[in-house]
Recover the amino acids of this structure.
C-alpha cells in the first residue's frame, strides 16, 4: 500500500490497524540534514524537493511538503526578502503602512511572481520523482497571517481595532490571492493544501469570528472544490478557538503541544484527522529513549481514531536525527 493510499484509508476508516502515519514538519532540519543552508532550501525548489525526498527515505516519512518560510506570497506582493544562510528568510520592508496602501494593493499573478512560481515548480518536480505514491502537501498563508506579513503584526492589529472596513478590504484581497495560489498548487500536483494562520492563536474568539472565520470557511471550501484536502495549522494554544473551527470542513489539523488532543477531539468531532502534538523543544532536548516513550504514549492513546504522529510544530534544526527516527519507530510499531 502506498503512503497516499494509507492516508486515504485513515480518512475513510479512522485507523490503519496497527500503524500510525508519521508526518512531521521539516524545514530548516531538512536543509541541515541534507547538507544545504536554509537559504538554499528556501530559494530553490530543486533543493527543497531533494532535501524532502532524502528525509522521506531516511526517516520513513508519510508525506513531502513544499513548506520553506512564510514569505512566498509576501514576495509576490512586492516585499523584498532577505535570505539568511542559517536562519528564516526575513521581510525587508512592509508594503502596507497606510489605508491607501490597502486600496492600491494589486493581487499578484501566481505564475509570474518568482517565489510562487518556484513553489509550483516544486509540486511538478515531486510528481515526476514520486508519482502518486506519496502525498504532496502544498501551502498557503491564511488571510490574517498574510496580512500581518504585509503590514506587520502591530500594524495589522491596530488596523483591526481602529479601521474594520479597511481591514475587511485587506483580508479579502489576500484571501483571493490565497485561493488562486492554492488552485495553482493543486493543478501542479498537490494532494493537500496546508493553511498556515499562526497568528490566530493570538486573537480572541470575537475577533476571529468577525474577521477570519468566514474567510477560513471560504478558503477551505475553495480548496475542496479544486480537488484537494485541507491541512490546517495554527501554532500555539488554540483551545479557545476550537468551537469555531468545528464545522469548517478541515480534513487534517495540526495541534501544537499546549492543546489537549482529547479536548480537541470532543470539540472537532470524530472525522477530523488530528496531527500532533509532541513539544518540539522536548523532541530536541531529550534523549532518544525518552522521545520514543513520549511518541509511543501518544500513539497508544490516540491511534484508535483519525490520528497522525508529529510534533506540535516544526522539528527544530538542532534536533538529533536519532530522536526523529525514534518518533518514526513509535509510529510504525503502532498501538
Amino acid at each position: 500500500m502506498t503512503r497516499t493510499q494509507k492516508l486515504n484509508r485513515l480518512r475513510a476508516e479512522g485507523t490503519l490497524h496497527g500503524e500510525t502515519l508519521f508526518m512531521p514538519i521539516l524545514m530548516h532540519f531538512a536543509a541541515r540534514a541534507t547538507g544545504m543552508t536554509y537559504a538554499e532550501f528556501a530559494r530553490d525548489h530543486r533543493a527543497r524537493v531533494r532535501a524532502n525526498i532524502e528525509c522521506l527515505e531516511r526517516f520513513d516519512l508519510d508525506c513531502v511538503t513544499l513548506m520553506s518560510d512564510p514569505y512566498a506570497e509576501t514576495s509576490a506582493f512586492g516585499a523584498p526578502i532577505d535570505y539568511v544562510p542559517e536562519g528564516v528568510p526575513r521581510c525587508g520592508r512592509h508594503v502596507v503602512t497606510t489605508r491607501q496602501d490597502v486600496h492600491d494593493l494589486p493581487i499578484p499573478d501566481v505564475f509570474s511572481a518568482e517565489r510562487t512560481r518556484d513553489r509550483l515548480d516544486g509540486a511538478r518536480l515531486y510528481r515526476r520523482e514520486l508519482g502518486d505514491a506519496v502525498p504532496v502537501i502544498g501551502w498557503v498563508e491564511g488571510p490574517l497571517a498574510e496580512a500581518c506579513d504585509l503590514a506587520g503584526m502591530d500594524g495589522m492589529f491596530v488596523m483591526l481595532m481602529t479601521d474594520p472596513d479597511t481591514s475587511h478590504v485587506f483580508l479579502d484581497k489576500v484571501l483571493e490571492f490565497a485561493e488562486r495560489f492554492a488552485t495553482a498548487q493543486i493543478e501542479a500536483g498537490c494532494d493537500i493544501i496546508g493553511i498556515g494562520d499562526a497568528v490566530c492563536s493570538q486573537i480572541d474568539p470575537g475577533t476571529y469570528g468577525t474577521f477570519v472565520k468566514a474567510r477560513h470557511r471560504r478558503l477551505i471550501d475553495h480548496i475542496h472544490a479544486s480537488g484537494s484536502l485541507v491541512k490546517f495549522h495554527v501554532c500555539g494554544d488554540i483551545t479557545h478557538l476550537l468551537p469555531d473551527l468545528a464545522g469548517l470542513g478541515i480534513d487534517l489539523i495540526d495541534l501544537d503541544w499546549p492543546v489537549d488532543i482529547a479536548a480537541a477531539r470532543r470539540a472537532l468531532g470524530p472525522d477530523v484527522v488530528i496531527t500532533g502534538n509532541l513539544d518540539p523543544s522536548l523532541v530536541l532536548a531529550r534523549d532518544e529513549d525518552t522521545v520514543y516513550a513520549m511518541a509511543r504514549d501518544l500513539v497508544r492513546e490516540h491511534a484508535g481514531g483519525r490520528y497522525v504522529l508529529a510534533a506540535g510544530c516544526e522539528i527544530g534544526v538542532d534536533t538529533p536525527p536519532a530522536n526523529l527516527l525514534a518518533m518514526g519507530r513509535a509510529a510504525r510499531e503502532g498501538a
Notes: The chain has a mean pLDDT of 96. The domain at 3-324 is CATH 3.20.20.210 (TIM Barrel). The first strand starts at residue 21 and ends at 22.
